[in-house]
Amino acid sequence: MHMDNITKVAVFCGSSFGNDDSFKLISHSFGALLAENSLTLVYGGGYRGLMGSVAQGVKDNNGHVIGVLPEIFDNDMVKLKSVEDELIIKKDMHERKKQIYDLADAFIILPGGIGTFDEFFKIFTWKQIGYHNKNIAIYNINGFFNTLISFLKECVDKGFLSNKVFDSLIISEDANQIIKDIKEKKVILPSKI
Hints:
Layout: E1 8-12, H1 21-36, E2 40-43, H2 49-60, E3 65-70, E4 86-90, H3 93-103, E5 106-109, H4 114-129, E6 135-139, H5 146-157, H6 163-167, E7 170-172, H7 175-184
Parallel strand pairs: 1-2, 1-5, 2-3, 3-4, 5-6, 6-7
Helix pairs in contact: 1-2
């Protein structure tokens, strides 16, 4: 996929802010960077946490935001402050994830909790088995993902993850490098069949 093909980027991150204020500021700046690069944000919807910060950063810089909510979150508490240009409501979390995966041309992971890890591992698994060949980037803000990266390297060392699959991940603490790499990197993984 060449850079001209990347127009929509899914961002997975926390629906809370964490306990380090820099996460909020950096995620807002990252949203601004997406907008500056004419990349539409596709995310889980709502204004809460880092998810809301990224969306607000896109919105504040005249970018386009697509939110995808499951019915369970289709309420005024979640939609108190609208940051989406388009809001898609799906029946459940599975349909929500599939919609986000289908819409996006690439995926970027920012700090978050188990929901963020669930989304990362699912999309990484799908790449490994050949469901898609879209770029996946880990934006390692303040070294947040260092332990996860070490664990994935241990999986390689112990023979449970191939080097090629691990190396297909884009990992950086530099937002501009992430944007450049998701547009330009092309990795075709060997078939698992």
